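DM from R.C. (forwarded with permission)

"hey, sorry to bug you on a friday — could you get me a structure for this? deadline for the figure draft is monday and I only need the backbone to look sensible"
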Amino acid sequence: MPDKFAATWVSHSSMSDYLHCPRAYYLKNVYKDPKTNSKIQIMSPALALGQAVHETLEALSVLRVEERFSTPLPERFAKNWEKISGKKGGFFDEQT
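My reply, with the result:
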């Protein structure tokens, strides 16, 4: 009996991606950056913003109450935003 785990599994969304644009499917599911050996992930602006907000609030939750606002909240957010904006996804400038 063949090993069912040796088969290639393809999700519905992957098939849909391929049918919509084979190149986009390749970049999203197959291609790995030669420098990092990681797949490329492009974030939508909404996802980038949500991730920055989430990381900012999550970092506050592990601090003691007295320490939570020793660094201003906008400054904490700006540090998290820098990690995911620009070339890594999200917004490129104030307009887009």
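R.C.: lifesaver. The chain has a mean pLDDT of 83.
me: no worries. Helices lie at 12-20, 22-30, 45-61, 73-84.
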